[in-house]
Write a structure and sequence with these properties.
Blueprint (H helix, E strand, L loop, with lengths): L25 H9 L10 H4 L3 E7 L2 H9 L4 E9 L8 H5 L6 E8 L6 H10 L8 E2 L2 E2 L5 E5 L2 H16 L11 E4 L4 E2 L7 H4 L4 H17 L10
Parallel strand pairs: 6-7
Antiparallel strand pairs: 1-3, 1-6, 2-3, 2-8, 4-5
Enzyme class: oxidoreductase
Catalytic activity: [thioredoxin]-disulfide + L-methionine + H2O = L-methionine (S)-S-oxide + [thioredoxin]-dithiol; L-methionyl-[protein] + [thioredoxin]-disulfide + H2O = L-methionyl-(S)-S-oxide-[protein] + [thioredoxin]-dithiol
Protein name: Peptide methionine sulfoxide reductase MsrA
Length: 230
């Protein structure tokens, strides 16, 4: 198993930049102005039925979606909400902490190319699992770290990897606070959040947080990347 020791401390310098909107509609307005409809390349549900799914939460879903989309064997990634009990949550509700959901991603992948174990390695290798209810400049339970499992096999894979990280003292004295939870329901986020990093490259959060986070991941996981992601 590949274990990455690179810390994410530099994100703490970006506390003034957040994935959370500054007002009720400001973030959506920016997204709508900058989005290029020609970049909307999401596969339709019928094209995805033959693939496996995995679910993770590790901070702002713009960043997490872009990271998993760069991984070979991953066919599609959707941004959305999971981990709470509220039905049909909206971005405004989740981002302001008005639900128990976290920003999460739904990953469609080909298990003949990439395994669930490797996706778990991608998950832990692309964020800091020791920061409680926080990832970089984003704070609140909606940005907490969660690895969801759909069966006992996936649960064991996740827990075994956490045990390995702790046994090898990867994070020093900082305990891993990632929640390991059974998957129940994923709510797809609003359309303007899908492929947000790709469609909004000039957004200040994307330039200062999301792209640097993606580049750090790429540097540490070169062998996991798609050909066009290098």
């Amino acid at each position: 198993m590949k274990i990455v020791r690179t810390p994410f401390l530099m994100l703490l310098l970006l506390a003034s930049i957040s994935c959370q909107p500054k007002n009720k509609s400001g973030k959506q307005e920016v997204a709508q102005k900058e989005s290029d409809p020609h970049l909307e390349t999401k596969l339709i549900s019928g094209q995805l039925q033959k693939y496996e799914t995995a679910y993770f939460a590790s901070g702002c879903f713009w960043c997490v979606e872009a990271i998993f989309e760069s991984v070979k064997g991953v066919k599609e990634v959707y941004s959305g909400y999971s981990g709470g009990s509220e039905k049909n949550p909206t971005y405004e509700q989740v981002s302001y902490g008005r639900t128990h959901h976290a920003e999460a991603v739904e990953v469609y992948y080909d298990p003949e190319v990439i395994s669930f174990t490797q996706l778990v390695q991608v998950f832990f290798g692309s964020h800091d699992p020791t920061t409680l209810n926080r990832q970089g400049p984003d704070r609140g339970a909606q940005y907490r770290s969660i690895a969801f499992y759909k069966n006992d096999r996936e649960k064991k894979i996740i827990q075994d990897y956490i045990d390995k990280l702790e046994t090898e003292n990867i994070y020093g004295n900082r305990p891993i606070v990632t929640e390991v939870e059974p998957f129940e329901k994923f709510y797809k986020a609003e359309e303007y959040h899908q492929d947000y990093e790709k469609r909004n490259p000039n957004n200040s959060y994307i330039r200062n947080v999301s792209i640097p986070r993606l580049n750090r991941f790429k540097k540490n996981f070169e062998s996991y990347l798609k050909e066009d992601a290098h």
